[in-house]
Amino acid sequence: MEERELLERAKEALINAYAPYSGYRVGAALLTREGKVFCGVNVENASFGLTICAERAAVAAAIASGYRSFVALAVAAEGEKEPFPCGACRQVLKEFGEMKVIIAGKKGKTLSFKLEDLLPYPFVKGENQTI
């Protein structure tokens, strides 16, 4: 699947986002190694700490369906700026290995990164544990 196709899936998903507090709707599309796409959207909550990011929602959907190996994630938002994944999302993505991360805001500018460039010093199983 091409980057633009995956990004289109993310843009289609964002219309279902629940963002009554920020008005900032985000959609994500996660591509598995097998070629299946799982989408997620941000789901806000009055207690902002309980808000679920679109990226983690897509990961949860894929995991719930039995997938564990991902090659790319596209994130789209209605805002003017590109929707970089937050630190928590970057760490969750890293749990499942390296992948490409593609982002695009309303202006249409598309950026593409390796996950390792967005999260250069991740916590990795067995490496960061002191117990």
In short:
The protein has 131 residues and is an alpha+beta fold.
Folded structure, characterized:
This protein is an alpha+beta fold. It has one domain: Cytidine Deaminase, domain 2, CATH 3.40.140.10. The protein is 27% helix and 23% strand. The chain contains four helices and five strands; from the N terminus they run αββαβαββα. It has helices at residues 3-14, 54-64, 87-94, 115-118; strands at 26-32, 37-41, 70-77, 100-104, 110-114. Strands 2-1-3-4-5 form a five-stranded mixed β-sheet. The model has no long low-confidence stretch (mean pLDDT 94).
Write down the domain tally: 1
User: Which CATH architecture is right?
Assistant: 3-Layer(aba) Sandwich
Provide the β-strand percentage band: 15-25%
Q: CATH topology, what is it called?
A: Cytidine Deaminase, domain 2
First-residue to last-residue Cα separation: 42 Å
Low-pLDDT ranges = none
Mind telling me the CATH class? Answer: Alpha Beta
SSE succession: HEEHEHEEH
List its traits.
single chain; 131 residues; alpha+beta; Cytidine Deaminase, domain 2; five-stranded mixed β-sheet; 4 helices; 27% helix
Task: Outline the secondary-structure elements.
Blueprint: H1 3-14, E1 26-32, E2 37-41, H2 54-64, E3 70-77, H3 87-94, E4 100-104, E5 110-114, H4 115-118
Parallel strand pairs: 3-4
Antiparallel strand pairs: 1-2, 1-3, 4-5
